Amino acid sequence: MATTEILLIKPVEGLGGEGDQVKVKSGYARNYLLPRKMALPITQANRKHIESLKQARVQREAQELDGAKDLAKKIEAVTLVFAVKTGEGGKMFGSITAADIVEKVGEQGITIEKRKLHISPVKELGKHTVHIKLHSDVTVDLAFEVVSENPIIEAPVVEDNDDDDDDFKGKKGKGKSRPRRTKKAD
User: Fold this and answer.
1) Secondary structure element (H or E) that encloses residue 178, with its range
2) Which run of H or of E encompasses 21?
3) In Å, what is the CA distance from 139 to each residue of 110, 116, 118, 132, 142?
4) Phi, psi of 45 (to 5 degrees)
5) 96-139, pLDDT tens digit by residue?
6) Is residue 56 assigned to a domain?
């Protein structure tokens, strides 16, 4: 396969940031990166742009880091409580997912992306923590609580009385079973 060396103008996930010289497949460069103005073919004139692009990259990364730190401070101040429906014994119906947490945090006026949350669905009542990776250098833990919407009713305990075991004894007398069917005489 033919490859082309290009100069990135904008950050491309999985490829690099602005100012990086990368080798990519010719078709990827020709059909995707170049038409979207994300990259330039490497020429002598374009090589001169590398320094200015690297300065822009450093500024962008510094702004992203500052923004992530500010967002982390806001998130640490948030307390979340989820009221869920429960059945007997406090068993939850459904679960709390990353989408639910993003929605609840959004109600507080904070916008985060669902893919930045690292959590498996929560299916139990109580206090839980979710890890949010806002930046490669900034990770924050968000504590939340899952409570019951309705009062928890303990499941009734069924006691087994051995007095009525004589009703349907099987062949060997081991517990209850259905009465045997007999064939009808024709």
Assistant:
1) none
2) strand 21-25
3) 16, 10, 11, 6, 10
4) -65, -40
5) 888 999 999 888 888 888 888 888 888 888 899 998 888 888 88
6) no
